[in-house]
Amino acid sequence: MKSIVDPQGALARGLAAIRAEFQVPASFPDQVVATAEQAAGRTPSDHADRTDRPFVTLDPATSTDLDQAFAIERAGSALLLHYAIADIGWFVEDGDPVDAEAWRRGTTLYLPDGKAGLYPPVLSEGAASLLPDGPRPAVIFTIRVAPDGIVHLDGAERAIVRSRAKLGYDAVRPDDLPADLPELAARIAAAEQARGAARVDPPEQEVAADRGGRMELMFRPRLPSEEKNAALSLAANMAVAAALRAKRTGLFRVMAEPDARAVARLRHTARAFDVAWPDGETLDCFERRLSARDPKEAALMMAIRRAGNGTAYAPFRDGERPWHAAMAATYTHATAPLRRLADRYVVRAALAVANGRTVEPLVTDAFERLPKVMARAEALAGRVERAVIDLAEAVMLHGREGQRFAAIVTDVDERGARVQLCDRPVLARIDDKGMTPGEAIDLRLVAADPEARRIAFRRDD
User: Fold this and answer.
1) What is the pLDDT of residues 101-117, one digit of tens each?
2) Which domain holds residue 22?
3) In whole angstroms, what is the distance from residue 446 CA to residue 431 CA?
4) 0.90 cut: is pTM over it?
5) Torsion of the alpha carbons at 185, 186, 192 and 194, rounded to the nearest 10
6) Does residue 433 form part of some domain?
7) Residue ranges of the RNB domain (predicted)?
8) N or C: which end of the chain has fewer CB within 10 A?
9) Is 414 inside a domain boundary?
């Protein structure tokens, strides 16, 4: 859960209830921990020495599960991104207790008060994490980025790396980073623009007290360093996806376009936030010009992210084109193996393909099984996220019962009407079917119960 943070602990009691309700694991079984501790002492034996490369990491300052480190160099008109990915696969044996537990979990679960990791901390925040306290095993993807932003996987190898610095988004200085990072990020952004991509990255929401002491949901502006870092993962994932698809293998991240009804809801949401969206402008064009620095546009970005037909994983199929609508490209997940199970197998396939080897049958079989496993894990993460949002909204509105709120009806179905508040990033339901999408109404807050994670409005006539 990265979309809401809670620095003042306003959600603490409710989060404990959410953890209990959704059975969020608080620890790992003893056998899993023992196996992980033994694996953490393994000495890499088939890794090249790349400790001379000036790798650095760039993450939230408090993060310790570091999946990626990077270095950049020029090669004529191209830029070479050396992207080191945590080699968790080196520490996990197929079928061992750590592997079995990872298949049960599927992904790391995030909540504002902490996470439930995919792997035990001795690996994910220790031996396998690309921390700057010593050499670490990694898989290095070498990505060639052309002047027009087109990417190509030049190579992949297991290697020992040493991070020079653990850089934080909020404190990093330009001279801490590779000199060519701004140009590389600009090339990737230009390529996105050229192919019509509409990647939406809304900022985090933070539960914090306003000047009057009331709790509010506020957006934390997305930092330029985050934007540049996101370009690195995008470049690597696209290059790996293309390489795997060319060899008729892989596991891809797919996403359909929002349907007409979802787009209509978003137009009403934009109206609620007083964000101009001309009738003839497509959703793709509209969302590309939204700014996460504007609170209302940030809230709209959040609505867009949640409005699509959902993302899924799909293995390679002859005659099918795996497509991610927001990326406007074939796309995979390979850059966060400490946090997503699927990435570990995509990395293994990329190592094989880049070095002229056949992808192992075990990996090919995993590609068939992973979509269901990842869908189950993401469904749980989605339910937890929705519960946290419900809690945050109830905390924010608690004590405001009886107040009036302007809203826009975004949709009407058999359950009633969905309404978007005009001055807060809150989407609610009211039991009233006699409304028209796009209608402006006034609501009266009837209840805001943090214990039940429930808010209730009625139309105020």
Assistant:
1) 999 999 999 998 899 99
2) 4-241
3) 13
4) yes
5) -160
6) no
7) 47-356
8) C
9) no
